[in-house]
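Shift notes (night). Ran Ketoreductase domain-containing protein while the centrifuge was going.
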Amino acid sequence: MADNVIDLSRKVALVTGGANGIGRAICIRLAACGARVAVCDLSPGDAERTAGEIGEGARAFALDVGQEASCAACVDAVAEAMGEIDILVNNAGIAEPVVGTLKQKPEDWQRVMDVNLRGVFLMSQCVARRMVAAGRPGAIVNLSSITGLMAHRASNGYGVSKAGVVMMTKTMAADFARRGIRVNAIAPGVIRTTLSKDLVEGGKVARAAFLNRIPMGDFGEPDDIARVAAFLASDWASYITGATLPVDGGWCAFGGPSSGA
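Came back to this:
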C-alpha cells in the first residue's frame, strides 16, 4: 500500500508514548500519510529525536499520562503550537513485573492502571473536550492488547488494564458518536519491540513458545500496528466506531499451542 493512499493531510495528530517502539512507528506512518504529528512522551529527549527523524511537520512535547495536569498542559501546548487536534492515538503504556497474582505488589498494579487505563481516560477527555468545544469531528485510537482480550497468567495488572481500554473504547464511542468523534482500539499481538525482546532474552518466555502460538509463525512489526492506526484515524474508517481490532498474526483466532505441523 502506497503511503499516500490514506490521506491525513491537514490533520493534526497527537501520539502518546510516541518516541519509541510502536509509538514511534505510528508517528512516522501518520506523518507519511500527511499528518502533522505531535510526538508526546515522558522522555523529551527521545521525543525530540523521533520528531527530528520525521522532520518538517513534527514536534516534540513532554507528557506524563499518569498526571492529570501534564495531560491538560500537553494538549493545550499541542493545540497552541500546531492547531486543533484531529487525531489522538493513546499509545503510552507500561508493563508490570511478570509475576503471579499472589506475588504482585499493589503499588506495581496501581502504576500500571494509572498509566495504561487512567492515562487513556485523561488524554481522551482533554482532547474530546476541545473537539466538542470547537465543533470539530475527530478520531481517537487506543492501544489495547491481546492480553486485554484473552487471559494470560501473570498479567493481572497489564491484562486487566488493557481489557479496561477495550470497554472504555466502547463506552466513549457510544458517548461521542453524535459529536462526530470516532473511538476505536487496536489489540496488538507479539510485536518485535524492546518489551518482547526483554521477555525472550530475560528468559520469561521462550521464543519458540511465542512462535508456536502464532498461526502466522512470526512476531509482528511496529509498522503493522502503525498502518492500522492510520486506517482507523482516516476517513476510510468513517463508519467504524467502538471496535477493537486484533493485529496479532492470528493469535486470538487460534485456541491452543501449535504442533508445528
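The chain has eight helices and seven strands. The beta strands are 12-16, 36-41, 58-62, 87-90, 138-143, 181-188, 244-247.
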